[in-house]
Structure prediction request, 185 residues.
Amino acid sequence: MRTSFEAIAAGGVSLTLARPAEPEALLDEEAFEDDEFLPYWAELWPAGIALAEALPADLDGVRIVELGCGLGVPSLVAAARGAEVTAVDWAADAIALLRENAARNGIELDAVRADWRAFRGSFDLALAADVLYEARNVEPLAELLPRLAPEALVALAGRPHEPGFLRRVEAAPVADRIVRVRRMG
Prediction:
């Protein structure tokens, strides 16, 4: 995979990120046939930046999980600001590149390759940015958030399945513990 480098600032943290130079070159017909897998992780999505900007000020020692982390900008920012971060994505290339970017920026975090829709653990805060691009992600996210953490930040990007997610969580006991971060612009 050919990468390019980009300097970004988010949440008060300056980062140098390697990212795929040609995300469309990562399309894999076999992976798509297996689980309709597309390399969404390879893009620097505005909702990820918005989520990094929306992180709480004091993160020292806060245990955070980011679901469907992709390039992991919120995870990198949270870890740089003192959080104990577990970043989860089902794309092996995403996890490998996140580990490289963490090392490149002198940041420690745990990057885990797993299907975030079935991830287990106990955290203080759960994060998800722009993971509602497919209808099949609505129910798993709504069910998973309250099991993982007492609070969640979910960055929305105007995807068609987000209203269904919002209806689902607003009718559930978890509604008051989910902060919706809307992408600006």
In short: The two ends are 30 Å apart (CA to CA). The helical segments are 29-35, 46-53, 73-80, 92-104, 138-148, 162-170. The first strand starts at residue 3 and ends at 10. The chain is about 30% helix and 25% strand.
